[in-house]
Amino acid sequence: MSFNVSGYAPAINAVKLSKCYQLYQHPKDRLKQFLWPHKWWGSRQYFRELWALHAIDLMIMPGEVVGIVGQNGSGKSTLLQLVCGTSTPTGGEVQVNGRIAALLELGAGFNPEFTGRENVLMSAAIMGLNQSEIADRIEQIIDFSGVRDFIDQPVKTYSSGMYVRLAFSVAINVDPDILIIDEALSVGDGAFARKSFTRIMQMRDAGKTILFCSHSLFQVESLCARAIWLNKGRIVLDGESAQVVSAYQSFLDQCATDSATEAAFADKNAPAQHPRHPTGSAHLDKVQLIADNTDTLQADIASGQSSVQINVSFVSDPALPCPNIAMTLHTKEGRVITSTATWEDQFAIQRAPDGSGQICLRLEQFPLLKGEYLVNIYLLCERGLHLYDSAEAIATLQVKQAGRLQGYFSIPHQWENNTIIQHD
């Protein structure tokens, strides 16, 4: 699918772009392969080929925000590395017009013996800034990173968080024409995570070209107008983000269903796991589920009859805008059944001056049919994009029904009899 606009050169143009890796079973096989042309070794191949990309054709115009989705091993990172120039193609070519800032392996080019300031100077120069531009921006880079007290110390003395924050600050402050992000939308923790996210949003709103690779389909659909689905090194679908995300989610659901018997139900007696991912600027304080007036996180409910109430308490930084809350219901295999969110319903959350708040979500005459469902709760920023905290599989709903209907939902419906009966 091409998005060319007459009169503008593409920001990124890949033609028949391919990448093959040579995989050796033993280190000595590399030497054997090096000597392979000589007659005493014979005509043998000591490696197997792994094609990460197969003849990719891709055109991205200036100002486009494009998401890339796909399972691990689909070729996403390889494509980004080829665009950035950190890897060379086996076949085809890729042309890039403009300065690139890549958030791939943050800080991969840092020298641990150099100070933070020296690494900033070196990295900025590698990214294409001249001495005057570096001098104008170095203080801004240091301030954004929040490591000024340690900027003249060797980075080998930095914590991993300081290291990442400095690397991100360099990449985001070189005023790139093209920003490439590989699962690094939020780096560090707390206030810095939000600050980094806000800066990326500003770049998007300023018309920068952004190539965004993520497993978060919600963020891809929210941030990107266009999305590309890669599978086994080939483009499966390239189009409007909602369309691509929907198709890819269906593919993932099918994969989850195929492997559900062994993966999801391996041990029904195992204790429930509730993963948490707080970032510091805001966090969930308590999640309470009340089913038919009973406070429980393991609820037995009747389809079409029971009422479910979910109470959520949170604490946030009062200096930041009030956050949003979202809820998803999904099967144990991971298939999302439905979701709801305060920003979608244009519901304004009220919170106390100290940043704390409570909210209640009511689900009357619970519409799901028989089955076991899990509840996820998410705390997000005022835009409903940046994730502050989540409580995954926080509650289990065991739904029973009287009838024999199949599926997930009982939808509102009405039967009518249109038969015309003739009377003699």
From TrEMBL:
<protein>
    <submittedName>
        <fullName>ABC transporter ATP-binding protein</fullName>
    </submittedName>
</protein>
<dbReference type="GO" id="GO:0016020">
    <property type="term" value="C:membrane"/>
</dbReference>
<dbReference type="InterPro" id="IPR029439">
    <property type="entry name" value="Wzt_C"/>
</dbReference>
<dbReference type="InterPro" id="IPR050683">
    <property type="entry name" value="Bact_Polysacc_Export_ATP-bd"/>
</dbReference>
<dbReference type="GO" id="GO:0005524">
    <property type="term" value="F:ATP binding"/>
</dbReference>
<dbReference type="InterPro" id="IPR003593">
    <property type="entry name" value="AAA+_ATPase"/>
</dbReference>
<feature type="domain" description="ABC transporter">
    <location>
        <begin position="29"/>
        <end position="257"/>
    </location>
</feature>
<dbReference type="GO" id="GO:0016887">
    <property type="term" value="F:ATP hydrolysis activity"/>
</dbReference>
<keyword id="KW-0547">Nucleotide-binding</keyword>
<dbReference type="InterPro" id="IPR015860">
    <property type="entry name" value="ABC_transpr_TagH-like"/>
</dbReference>
<dbReference type="InterPro" id="IPR003439">
    <property type="entry name" value="ABC_transporter-like_ATP-bd"/>
</dbReference>
<keyword id="KW-0813">Transport</keyword>
<keyword id="KW-0472">Membrane</keyword>
<dbReference type="Pfam" id="PF00005">
    <property type="entry name" value="ABC_tran"/>
</dbReference>
<keyword id="KW-1003">Cell membrane</keyword>
<dbReference type="GO" id="GO:0140359">
    <property type="term" value="F:ABC-type transporter activity"/>
</dbReference>
<dbReference type="Pfam" id="PF14524">
    <property type="entry name" value="Wzt_C"/>
</dbReference>
<dbReference type="InterPro" id="IPR027417">
    <property type="entry name" value="P-loop_NTPase"/>
</dbReference>
<keyword id="KW-0067">ATP-binding</keyword>
<comment type="similarity">
    <text>Belongs to the ABC transporter superfamily.</text>
</comment>
